[in-house]
Amino acid sequence: MKTLLAAALLLAANAHAATLTLDIQGLSKKSGHVLIAVHADAASFNDKGKPAAVRSVEVKDAKVTVTIPDLAPGTYAVSLFHDANDNNKLDTNFIGIPKEGYGFSNNVGARGKPKFDEAKFTLAADGTTLTLTVL
Protein backbone atom coordinates (compact mmCIF):
# COMPACT_ATOMS: atom_id res chain seq x y z
CA MET A 1 0.00 0.00 0.00
CA LYS A 2 2.83 2.42 0.81
CA THR A 3 4.42 1.70 -2.58
CA LEU A 4 1.14 2.44 -4.34
CA LEU A 5 0.75 5.71 -2.44
CA ALA A 6 4.34 6.75 -3.21
CA ALA A 7 3.83 5.99 -6.90
CA ALA A 8 0.61 8.03 -6.96
CA LEU A 9 2.34 10.99 -5.30
CA LEU A 10 5.23 10.78 -7.79
CA LEU A 11 2.82 10.74 -10.74
CA ALA A 12 0.90 13.70 -9.29
CA ALA A 13 4.11 15.69 -8.86
CA ASN A 14 5.22 14.95 -12.43
CA ALA A 15 1.77 15.84 -13.79
CA HIS A 16 2.59 19.49 -13.10
CA ALA A 17 6.06 19.33 -14.65
CA ALA A 18 6.89 20.72 -18.07
CA THR A 19 9.75 20.13 -20.49
CA LEU A 20 11.90 22.87 -21.96
CA THR A 21 13.61 22.05 -25.26
CA LEU A 22 16.45 24.27 -26.45
CA ASP A 23 17.61 24.21 -30.07
CA ILE A 24 20.99 25.94 -29.89
CA GLN A 25 22.56 27.00 -33.18
CA GLY A 26 25.52 29.04 -34.38
CA LEU A 27 28.24 27.19 -32.48
CA SER A 28 31.54 28.21 -34.06
CA LYS A 29 33.64 25.20 -33.02
CA LYS A 30 32.86 21.51 -32.75
CA SER A 31 34.57 21.20 -29.39
CA GLY A 32 33.94 21.80 -25.72
CA HIS A 33 30.58 22.09 -24.03
CA VAL A 34 27.62 24.43 -23.91
CA LEU A 35 26.93 25.41 -20.31
CA ILE A 36 23.28 26.29 -19.74
CA ALA A 37 21.40 27.85 -16.82
CA VAL A 38 17.62 28.15 -16.57
CA HIS A 39 16.60 30.98 -14.25
CA ALA A 40 13.22 31.32 -12.54
CA ASP A 41 13.80 34.89 -11.33
CA ALA A 42 15.89 38.02 -11.80
CA ALA A 43 18.08 37.27 -8.76
CA SER A 44 19.27 33.99 -10.24
CA PHE A 45 19.69 35.59 -13.67
CA ASN A 46 21.96 38.20 -12.06
CA ASP A 47 24.11 35.58 -10.28
CA LYS A 48 22.53 36.30 -6.88
CA GLY A 49 20.59 33.05 -6.59
CA LYS A 50 20.51 29.44 -7.69
CA PRO A 51 19.25 28.53 -11.19
CA ALA A 52 16.21 26.30 -11.51
CA ALA A 53 18.26 23.94 -13.72
CA VAL A 54 21.76 23.68 -15.16
CA ARG A 55 23.11 21.52 -17.97
CA SER A 56 26.42 20.88 -19.71
CA VAL A 57 26.15 19.46 -23.23
CA GLU A 58 29.05 18.28 -25.38
CA VAL A 59 29.41 20.08 -28.70
CA LYS A 60 29.87 17.83 -31.74
CA ASP A 61 28.21 19.96 -34.41
CA ALA A 62 27.25 23.58 -35.17
CA LYS A 63 23.99 23.03 -33.32
CA VAL A 64 22.77 20.98 -30.36
CA THR A 65 19.37 20.18 -28.89
CA VAL A 66 18.93 20.01 -25.13
CA THR A 67 15.87 18.76 -23.25
CA ILE A 68 15.32 19.91 -19.67
CA PRO A 69 12.40 18.03 -18.07
CA ASP A 70 10.58 18.44 -14.77
CA LEU A 71 10.31 22.23 -14.61
CA ALA A 72 7.20 23.82 -13.17
CA PRO A 73 5.25 25.77 -15.79
CA GLY A 74 5.92 29.48 -15.42
CA THR A 75 8.31 32.30 -16.29
CA TYR A 76 12.01 31.62 -16.93
CA ALA A 77 15.06 33.02 -18.72
CA VAL A 78 17.96 31.03 -20.18
CA SER A 79 21.62 32.00 -20.28
CA LEU A 80 24.34 29.93 -21.90
CA PHE A 81 27.87 30.02 -23.20
CA HIS A 82 29.99 27.82 -25.44
CA ASP A 83 32.99 26.74 -23.37
CA ALA A 84 34.98 25.74 -26.45
CA ASN A 85 38.19 25.11 -24.51
CA ASP A 86 36.49 23.29 -21.59
CA ASN A 87 37.96 25.47 -18.83
CA ASN A 88 34.50 25.94 -17.19
CA LYS A 89 34.48 29.72 -17.60
CA LEU A 90 33.49 32.29 -20.19
CA ASP A 91 36.78 33.60 -21.53
CA THR A 92 36.91 37.36 -22.11
CA ASN A 93 39.45 39.82 -23.48
CA PHE A 94 41.22 42.41 -21.35
CA ILE A 95 38.20 44.74 -21.30
CA GLY A 96 35.67 42.00 -20.54
CA ILE A 97 34.25 41.28 -23.99
CA PRO A 98 33.52 37.54 -24.38
CA LYS A 99 35.91 35.58 -26.60
CA GLU A 100 33.58 32.55 -26.55
CA GLY A 101 30.03 32.33 -27.81
CA TYR A 102 27.12 33.10 -25.51
CA GLY A 103 23.37 33.50 -25.72
CA PHE A 104 20.11 34.23 -23.94
CA SER A 105 16.48 33.30 -24.41
CA ASN A 106 14.66 35.56 -26.87
CA ASN A 107 18.06 35.96 -28.59
CA VAL A 108 18.73 39.20 -26.73
CA GLY A 109 22.11 40.36 -25.47
CA ALA A 110 24.01 41.34 -28.59
CA ARG A 111 25.13 44.52 -26.79
CA GLY A 112 25.79 43.05 -23.36
CA LYS A 113 23.93 41.06 -20.77
CA PRO A 114 20.19 41.75 -20.97
CA LYS A 115 17.80 42.22 -18.07
CA PHE A 116 15.70 39.28 -16.90
CA ASP A 117 12.56 40.93 -18.32
CA GLU A 118 14.15 41.06 -21.79
CA ALA A 119 15.09 37.37 -21.75
CA LYS A 120 12.05 35.94 -19.96
CA PHE A 121 9.60 33.57 -21.60
CA THR A 122 6.68 31.45 -20.46
CA LEU A 123 7.15 27.70 -20.12
CA ALA A 124 3.76 26.20 -20.97
CA ALA A 125 2.35 23.21 -19.10
CA ASP A 126 2.67 21.09 -22.25
CA GLY A 127 6.28 22.20 -22.81
CA THR A 128 8.05 24.87 -24.81
CA THR A 129 10.75 24.78 -27.50
CA LEU A 130 13.10 27.75 -27.94
CA THR A 131 15.67 28.38 -30.66
CA LEU A 132 18.74 30.20 -29.33
CA THR A 133 21.48 31.58 -31.56
CA VAL A 134 24.95 31.79 -30.05
CA LEU A 135 26.51 35.21 -30.49
Q: Could you explain how this protein is built, in words?
A:
- This protein has 135 residues and is α+β, with helices and mostly antiparallel strands.
- The protein has one domain: Sandwich (Immunoglobulin-like).
- The protein is built from 3 helices and 8 strands, in the order αββαββββαββ.
- The strands form 2 sheets. Strands 2, 3, 5, 6 and 7 form a 5-stranded antiparallel beta sheet that branches. The chain has a 3-stranded mixed beta sheet with strand order 4-1-8, with no helix packed on it.
- The protein is globular and about 45 Å long.
- The termini are far apart.
- The relative contact order is 0.25.
CATH class reads Mainly Beta
Unreliable stretches: 4-14
**What is the rounded Rg?**
17 Å
Give the assembly state of these chains: single chain
> In the CATH hierarchy, what is the architecture at level 2?
Sandwich
Determine the fraction of residues in helical runs and give it as a percent range.
10-25%
Main sheet properties: 5 strands, antiparallel
Mean pLDDT: 90
How many angstroms does the end-to-end distance come to?
54 Å
Write down the domain tally: 1
Q: What's the tally of helices?
A: 3
The shape, in one word, is globular
The ordered string of helix (H) and strand (E) elements is HEEHEEEEHEE
The CATH topology annotation reads as Immunoglobulin-like
How many individual β-strands? 8
Keywords: Signal
InterPro entries: DUF2141 (IPR018673)
Protein name: DUF2141 domain-containing protein
Signal peptide: 1-17
